[in-house]
Amino acid sequence: MKKQTGANVEQQIVELLEDEDFLSLDATFHRTNLFQAIGMETQEIRHSNFIAWLLDPNESHGLGDTLIKLFLTRLFSKGPDEAGSKVLPDGVSSLILSDLSSSTVTRESESNTDILFKTDNPKLVLCMENKVWSGVGDGQLDKYWTYVESRYARYPYRIYVLLTPSGNAAPMEKTAHAEQWIPFSYDDLRDCLNVLASRTTDEKNLLLIRDYIDLLERKGIVETAQIDDLVDKLYRRYPDVFDLVENRRSNARKAVSSCLGRIYLEVLEEMGTEGLFSSWCKETTSYLWFHTKRMDGYLASHMGESKEGSWGNGATYHYFIYPKPVGFFVPSIRLELGPFGQGREVIDRQNKVKDFFAPNKKDISSANKYCQVKTVNVNIDEREAMSPSELDTGQIKKALRTGILSMLEWEDKFFSSLEAC
Predict the structure, then answer these.
(1) Which residues contact 350 (CB under 8 A, 6 or more apart)?
(2) Cβ atoms within 10 A of the Cβ of 164, count?
(3) pLDDT tens for residues 238-284?
(4) 6, 35, 132, 351: which has the fewest C-beta neighbours closer than 10 Å?
(5) Cα first-last separation, the chain
(6) pTM score
(7) CA-CA distance, 147 to 285, in Å (whole number)?
(8) Gap between the Cα atoms of 377 and 160, Å rounded
(9) Which H or E run includes 289?
């Protein structure tokens, strides 16, 4: 069917709904999928749970050590130019031929590592950090690396893997050991799972693996040529319809984000009037912030009248309702220091804050612009909301308040540690 140039949107919609390619695409996305039914597509922790389950040779799937060997094979086959491939320990290829059935897999029970695969014979530990929707936090990978290097120093095979949709290398500005983390994409994972599916005869296992691969393709976590080709064909035929949908969707998302910002401001106002803050943001901006009396007093600036600093107002720190990586839809609470241009006394105290909240970070100086030292995740995820009416204001306020209180508990611990010295 040729593109209907000049056709009005209503006519294009009618034609689209009868288009065989559209019906095929619609059937793909409406096919029953177990993981989508339980809301797994937006829950990073559930992705990690399923991957860990498949990697564990002792789990009920009965697949033994098949996936970990496929995983190691994929890591070993990465070219020498790929970031991290050069750090694979000598002799790691022999692991593929070893019996790894006595291995164990843990989830967040050791230094909060996403997935830790370990076996005593051969002495192998594989530390995996999984990032589907969020980015790597400051010092996060360093924390895991330091734990494994100290706890498993006697293991000759220590492998660090950063699993992301695009297979990006570990950001050098976020970790002092970026070169130690081997990038692994969800495309790599899908390839391993396809081989795993071809080797299983159990119908339940096959259904789970196929459904998970299907979920990754539906949600765009991995690319699929078939879906991309259908979408491209449909857009060329019905551009007015897709442009209209995108504009409406964009406007709806802006409305939801604006509403979330107002809800967050209400929480700040409520907690501020309760005496929990010394000052707080009074209008919607990209980064909503608050300060506390104790931290104000401890990090008080002595910059005088110039009031430059990291934010141009002399401030030495902020507690932020942090909007990255996906805006106010999935916020976090973050403590960020502003060392730029500050005096020696302030820098010394900022380093004490840094040493408590992020001990693996390098010392900061007055030349540094910003230093993020602590992030508290908030149980808010409104990426699927398309209208402010879909938001549960009460639940959102409760979740944000809980996140802020958690950060203030960390502040309490910091000042208690100073008093104990």
Answers:
(1) 299, 316, 317, 337, 339, 342, 364, 371
(2) 20
(3) 777 777 767 777 778 888 999 999 999 999 999 999 999 999 998 87
(4) 6
(5) 77
(6) 0.55
(7) 38
(8) 23
(9) strand 288-291
